[in-house]
């Protein structure tokens, strides 16, 4: 742990752990991928709010708001991503949390990945993703680089 | 990138009960940011109203499920409820899996329920460092009661009792014989003891052992004074016992208010919060002279000085104001 200085900026990420919501929207019951990612993020030093299966867009938005997460991670293997992601992003915007970094994982075809990114999802991690790539992506996009990650040495 | 708001805006939002402002203010307190300190200074005069209820007990005992049922009881009475649910941080990486919220998802569409998960960040005692300070924010935002769910705790984590008006200790059957109920520690701090998983066959025996333990205290030559720990058996599966728990908590609150005990406990809570801050700042000063610390540890390694003398040296080293 390193001491913080008084003039450290109030809302910058600094050296505190990344807070990330890991949720599974929709109706498929395959939560292994979400659990693998939750575990990997935990081991990377993130604080993971795990809400698991069957999450509605409103549940995800409410959790993102109350938990004040930096990142929303969505895992979906049902094929319903094109119908679920727009209402999730709309729900996040409605509660004022469209400033959260949204990432997705699961079985999402290449063509859809392009469209999902156009909607505002920052990155999609499909099957075969290296865990470290997802972790690095989150660190880069939340301003918690290698230096911050080693704060707990 | 995250949007930025000033301390004045966030404090105003907290006082108006705006969920986003409360959420952001909690983060700033949790991360020890100067803006958090500023927000607290602004809202603290508006606190002191809420009933703080600590819920503690071993991992997997059913604390979160119990809290979920408590929320239901309070919502039926129209109260605005906040829950601060604490889970452990990894001692190795600092990471955490915060999994209490998953038991309370049914309230996601209810404006009167705010659930916040918090990592312990190795504070100890089953709590997070800023537990009470975060509770002040909920208090200022009009939440009453505020339920604090500790990390799964064993025999000796009693700190919650000095950070809540009412402590609910959750016990489960199958964790040992009646001698366990004789032991000092956690069992002494429950204002209310819940025997959870009351549908299990040995739950009745545990409730009986706990009640018998109480009669061991009784001295026939002394009149009974003070609060007598309430023992309530609950079952989330059978949906039984929660009315009794609700009544016991209300009864304890009434007793605190009627006696001098409410103010006495608040004094303890605030003193605990202040001394926690003092300890933290002292450690920060010592860490800021980390060169000294390293040198001192090396001297202890070489057996030149003892660990106790080393600590004295660090405490005596000059500090910045």
Short description:
The complex is a heterodimer of chains A (153) and B (321). By secondary structure, chain A is an alpha/beta fold. Helices cover 41% and strands 20% of the residues of chain A.
Q: What is this structure's SSE topology?
A:
The complex is a heterodimer of chains A (153) and B (321).
Chain A: E1 19-25, H1 32-43, E2 47-55, H2 57-67, E3 71-76, H3 81-94, E4 101-106, H4 110-119, E5 123-125, H5 131-142, H6 146-149
Parallel strand pairs in A: 1-2, 1-3, 3-4, 4-5
Helix pairs in contact in A: 2-3
Chain B: H1 7-15, H2 19-30, H3 34-43, E1 52-56, H4 63-76, E2 81-87, E3 96-98, E4 113-119, H5 131-140, E5 146-149, E6 166-171, E7 192-195, H6 203-217, E8 230-233, H7 242-258, H8 261-288, H9 290-301, H10 307-316
Parallel strand pairs in B: 1-5, 1-6, 2-4, 2-5, 6-7, 7-8
* Domains of chain B (count): 2
By CATH reckoning, the class of the largest domain in chain B would read: Alpha Beta
What percent of residues of chain A adopt helix (DSSP H or I)? 40-55%
Q: How many DSSP-defined strands of chain B?
A: 8
